[in-house]
Amino acid sequence: MKKIILSALTVVLMTGCANEFNAVYKSADYLYKYEYAKQCYTSGKYTQATTLLSEIITMLKGTDHAEESLYLYAMSLYKGGDYELASDAFKRCYVSYPKGLYTENAYFYAAESLYESSPEPRLDQSPTMAAIKGYQDLLDIYPRTSFREAAHQRMLELQDKLVTKEFYNARLYYNLGTYFGNCLSGGSNYEACIITAQNALNDYPYMNRREDFALLIMKSKFHLAENSVEAKRYERYQNAEDECYGFINEYPDSKNRDLAEKYISVCKKYTVSN
After folding, report:
1. CA distance linking residue 88 with residue 141, whole number of Å
2. Triad 265, 270, 274: Cα angle to 5°
3. What one-character-per-residue DSSP string does the chain give?
4. C-beta atoms surrounding 42 within 10 Å
5. Nearest one of 66, 74, 127 to 96, comparing CA atoms
6. How far apart are CA 226 and CA 241, in angstroms?
7. Rounded to 5 degrees, what angle do the CA atoms 205, 206, 209 make?
8. Cα separation of 217 and 12, whole Å?
9. Which of 2, 207, 238, 258 has its CA 20 to 30 A from that of 222?
10. What is the residue-level pLDDT of the chain in tens, covering all 274 positions?
């Protein structure tokens, strides 16, 4: 019986809240709407806050509430999980009010919104790169910002994601090996793997996957030599041998050292005899 009474009370309260919101939404008093929207935001009712604020932002433009209302709208979107719209709204904040009260926060949360939108490494990383730029813009404009440590940490996380993306790309080329169906403009998958991995090593010199990329380069150079036409075989085996020695010098304790030494033995059979 008590459960039935509680359920009935819950329905009544929810209906009452909905009726109250509808009454506010239909009101022509935009200042009243704004105050109610702020209450919704404070109460965690972000969808209701967003709905009301989206209606009155234009009306509040030019008033003392203009900047705050736009920032509150952006924060309501962010806390409601609509990160794409939130990022755009935060950008409107710092563009419209470049020296405003909420400008520094808007820069940070615009980047945070993009950070939250950043997809897993196998997908397009445009939001990830945009987020990194957003954090860098914040640090350039506000070098002493209170968000400095958080921004640096986010940038490192996002850079790791870009590195992982490049590793997946390089590894895919390696795994495709001698398949030529995707090499319509010439070259080979092993060459594509080498270029992708070398570019990643140059672009992200302090990454923690350097050995993984170096291993792909070494293996690709060896298999490239192994599958070369006779005219290119000597040069490519020599190149592969040099790469193997370089790998051993840089990673003397690598679990793949035996593989490098095995490759060197094969390469020497060709380079010494020629």
Report:
1. 19
2. 140
3. -HHHHHHHHHHHHHHHHHHHHHHHHH-S-HHHHHHHHHHHHHTT-HHHHHHHHHHHHHHHTTSTTHHHHHHHHHHHHHHTT-HHHHHHHHHHHHHH-TTSTTHHHHHHHHHHHHHHH---TTS--HHHHHHHHHHHHHHHH-TT-TTHHHHHHHHHHHHHHHHHHHHHHHHHHHHHTT--TT-TTS--HHHHHHHHHHHHHHH-TT-S-HHHHHHHHHHHHHHHHHTS-HHHHHHHHHHHHHHHHHHHHH-TT-TTHHHHHHHHHHHHHHHTT-
4. 9
5. 66
6. 12
7. 90
8. 68
9. 207
10. 545 444 543 443 344 456 788 777 777 788 889 999 999 999 999 999 999 999 999 999 999 999 999 999 999 999 999 999 999 999 999 999 999 999 999 999 999 999 999 999 999 999 999 999 999 999 999 999 999 999 999 999 999 999 999 999 999 999 999 887 655 455 799 999 999 999 999 999 999 999 999 999 999 999 999 999 889 999 999 999 999 999 999 999 999 999 999 999 999 998 886 6
Residue keyed to tokens 């790791």: 160
Token readout for 242 is: 């040099």
